[in-house]
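Hi,

I'm pasting everything inline rather than attaching a file, because the server keeps stripping attachments. The sequence lines come first, and each chain or strand is labelled.
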Amino acid sequence: MAINFQLCWEPEDQTNILGIDIGGTKTALVMGTLEAKILRRTEFLTPIADPFDIAISKIENAVDNFIFDWHKDGNNKPRAISVAIGGPLDIEKGILFSPPHLANWGTAPVKPNLQEYFKLPVFVEHDGNAGALAEYYFGAGQGSRNLIFITMGTGLGAGIILNGVIYHGSSDAAGEVGHIRMADQGPLEYGKVGSWEAFCSGSGIVKFAKLRSPDLWGPQTTTHEIVQRALAGDPTAIELIDEVGRWLGKGLALLVDILNPDMIIIGTLGVLLGDLVLEPARRILKQEALAITNNVCKILPAKLGSSLMDVGCLMAVYDAYKNKRLWLPQDQ
Amino acid sequence: MAINFQLCWEPEDQTNILGIDIGGTKTALVMGTLEAKILRRTEFLTPIADPFDIAISKIENAVDNFIFDWHKDGNNKPRAISVAIGGPLDIEKGILFSPPHLANWGTAPVKPNLQEYFKLPVFVEHDGNAGALAEYYFGAGQGSRNLIFITMGTGLGAGIILNGVIYHGSSDAAGEVGHIRMADQGPLEYGKVGSWEAFCSGSGIVKFAKLRSPDLWGPQTTTHEIVQRALAGDPTAIELIDEVGRWLGKGLALLVDILNPDMIIIGTLGVLLGDLVLEPARRILKQEALAITNNVCKILPAKLGSSLMDVGCLMAVYDAYKNKRLWLPQDQ
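And the predicted assembly:
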């Protein structure tokens, strides 16, 4: 039987897309529409201890069950699969190369494997880029043209959208902002003393706190505790977060003078901490960046909040569809 | 009489374009073909002491004479005017806003004025971008897709070409790399202690030398002298240039991890000093940038050398023509 392809068979809101968000801890499965409306969701622990062949079989098995239940309830099967995953990876081919957060996976041909198994079009996007696209299309970034999304979760990465198009770079590694050096001394993160990630990520902040004031932050301190104390009004935690915000601002000033974006959107910790971390960043930006670049750039927390990566993992397909790079099969 | 427009009337090599490179010291006039072949050139001092109205009249007068002589020799009159100039400016409108290097000009509507006077299409480009486009189309950047051009002349600016398209930014100010802070202490340049321009530009290097080793570099030292001594093999000058190269590498590492370009081309001082300044930069890059980004990025001196801005000032029209944004009038 011949398979015919066209851009969209059913109406957009009845065309379903399966999203897979593969993280270093959990994997989420999302059933969404071609308009990125989330209809159903589940999650499970990513099989990180397994080699890739076994890990992907387990993920495929979970997807099978997820689709089976979905279809049993009288819903349309998905027409395409959209994946968000951390790099390094070849985005077009959908192959990961020895990802540090999935150390046992080695070279992992995620897209070829899923495509072969499900006989559906599969699109893959770097998770920082997926977050950027989610905010650009559905979050705080609507109306922006040159947008930088900073993850500020456990790690610190960026997704860069320029002239309305996601920018991947020459080896699909653009936006590795967590690796840039901000100071010759400081905490160690991303293999580098004083990297931006060492000052401004979930894993960095707690190291920074202990290094800066070992008398105030004991060995058991966690980033979660620091955040909770800051939100509860603890002056010690607020002062620490203020300094984190100033380091955030120093890094943002580089991006603002280099790329002249109209918006920078800050993910997880920017959402949790809000102005506690964003105001000092804006203050430093005003000192550090040129008026001509800084005056046109808004610094905002991500708007999608906890659903960011649910929408995000659908973005590989959504962006391909919007830019007419996606043709869906009629028969499955 | 109606004026008809089309993409190109005569063959490309017989369609002439007038280029104007307006610098803070000199203005060059270039007659070139639509293929950016240089046919004739002249230069004069930029009327920087005059207010804009008078300055632009003097430039227009010089252009008139230049075209008159050209036409008198039996050549086709130019079909369009292409301008390269330093910012800040609105590239599309061709208006400068209080350019620091042309302090008496205030708000300077360069494009509207030239268009009105010559009744020809006028295209304007920022000089850093013009240099980037010249190298991209005709110099070391041929075959590149994501290219950063670093001027490294008197100042330090960048032109950024991503996915084969010049990137202007949200207020036409992308590439202000000279303004980013590299250190908390150091020479003062671009209004900022420790800016990248303070370590790695013609005006910065001499300040850096005197600040670093006042015993070795007297108050009369010039950048020209430092460069000449380094080229002649003087160990003191070579060691200084090596350190400049290391600062260059530290800044390039930021660009490489943020933008993942396949090529970075270094202008004036990179051409003059060659590996004396580029090798230490490459050495630091290898330490500072990620392997996945650094391994795909070549660091090269500009290839067009002294004709860089002659070709560069034709790029506003050339790039518009290549991207089908230019329609030339049939009758003049």
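Chain A has two domains: 5-126+313-329, 140-303.

If the labels don't parse on your end, tell me and I'll reformat.
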